[in-house]
Amino acid sequence: MPETLRLALWQCAPLPRAQSQADDHAVADNLARLEATLAQVSGTVDLLVTPEMFVSGYNVGAEAARFRADPVLRDMTIPPVDGSIADALSHMCARHRVAVVYGCGEIGDDGSVYNTARIVDAAGVHLCSHHKSHLYGGLDRDMFTAGTEPAPVIEFCGWRVGLLICYEVEFPEMTRSLAARGADLICVPTANMVEYNDVQRVLLPSRALENQVFLAYANYIGTEGDLTYGGLSVILGPAGAPVTANPGVADLVTATLVRADIEHSRSQFCYLDDRNPDVY
């Protein structure tokens, strides 16, 4: 079982930076710059995490979010070969031998549009999708339908990886659920605004510490329409402290995660073992 995992968060500016007409080239442009970043980290990183709705853009309005959405991925065992976003990511990851957690929209048969995070491995196989279930105010609700399935925990390179999207990490029961189902690492693609920087400064260390997991929070930096994103992307260890020397500063925030850190933390005391779910 691998004892380490090389992780990178891509703290980038959103593109396009304002709401655009539906017939633009935003998806192609974002896919192109993602491929350039995969080429840059190839051979040095096992898993790259992008911000929320990276491929489609986040604050783009309902029309553009719908137009740029990918079909819902239903059968993860069948590689997409249909010109979709998923198809493009499968080829990119296989070409550069890097796995990715990326954000995009998904559209269901009934026309529902979901704010989605996906994991695709270094062989180009999509491992899972997660639909954001806790929507942030009118901004999310005007564009998306809330997901109804629990956030996933999957096996990846011998690690148990959970997925949340932005606002969801601010609900303690969601991180606790992932940890209780065995997550070692929780990845959180994010579009958090500068006025809420206390999420990174105060809340995230608590989430990592109280669940004794690694937590990777990949945020935008810069402006998109009327939103200004605060960056401060960070990889936290199971003691709640950053495990990288440059949290929220560089375009790429990197760290090598060491499984023994989780084991050491939980050997001192273990919230998961000591909790009493019968009383709440």
Can you summarize the main beta sheet? 7 strands, mixed
| Morphology | globular
Count of helix runs: 8
Order of helices and strands: EHEHEHEEEHEEHEHEEEEEHH
Strand content: 25-35%
Could you list the spans in which at least 5 consecutive residues all have pLDDT below 50? none
Distance between the termini: 35 Å
Quaternary state of the chains: single chain
Topology, number of strands: 14
Q: What's the gyration radius in Å?
A: 18 Å
**Average pLDDT reading:** 93
Q: Give me the secondary-structure category.
A: alpha/beta
Assign a percent range to the helix content. 25-40%
Structure at a glance:
The protein has 280 residues and is α/β, with parallel strands linked by helices. It has helices at 26-41, 62-67, 85-96, 137-141, 172-180, 198-211, 259-268, 271-274; strands at 4-10, 47-49, 70-71, 99-107, 113-120, 126-131, 153-156, 159-163, 185-189, 214-218, 221-224, 227-230, 234-236, 252-258.
Q: How would you describe this protein?
A:
Helices cover 27% and strands 26% of the residues. By secondary structure, the protein is of the alpha/beta class. The radius of gyration is 18 Å and the shape is globular. The mean pLDDT is 93.
Give descriptors for this structure.
280 residues; alpha/beta; seven-stranded mixed beta sheet; five-stranded mixed beta sheet; 8 helices; 14 strands; 27% helix
Write the layout of secondary structure elements.
Layout: E1 4-10, H1 26-41, E2 47-49, H2 62-67, E3 70-71, H3 85-96, E4 99-107, E5 113-120, E6 126-131, H4 137-141, E7 153-156, E8 159-163, H5 172-180, E9 185-189, H6 198-211, E10 214-218, E11 221-224, E12 227-230, E13 234-236, E14 252-258, H7 259-268, H8 271-274
Helix pairs in contact: 1-3
